[in-house]
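Sequence in, structure out.
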Amino acid sequence: MTRTATRPAEQARDYFRVPLLVFVLVGCAVGLALGVYAAQHKPAGYALDIAGFSAPLYVKAWLTTFAAVLAVVQLLTAARLYDPDVPAWTGTVHRWSGRVAVLLTVPVVVHCVYALGFGTYEPRVLVHSVLGCFFYGAFVTKMLLLSRRGQPRWVLPVAGGALFAALIGLWLTSSLWVFTTTGFHF
């Protein structure tokens, strides 16, 4: 019986398959843990309030809106990163817009999880709760993927696309809903 040698393409696929699977599973675990905590803990009902806003609801709506705008910047700059003639500042803008976008969502998620919990009382709220958990799971997955060099070119765009889609979905199920039902103001 002759033993066949593994081809380089198969070796490369195996080299990325396991870490990719591990990173996705870690992201899923983070999203699941966030959802379980939000569902199991008794909502405190305390509101997030920041000076300059008329109500805590608008704090969350505007922070999410600013994060969504930065997510669009992320999308536009990410598309340019694969262009060989891209200006050097594009990568910097991409990284910092992503960092600031996620930082803007932190007070929102803390308020949502701590004060409100995992909502299931209407479809919009359920979708919003699931997307919030998915967003942070996708964020963790993407950050872990960024630490792994030499992976297939499709990996980061897919992870970034999932992150972008989740944030836009969160904006649609929260900020847009607030602005269209209670008005567009601070």
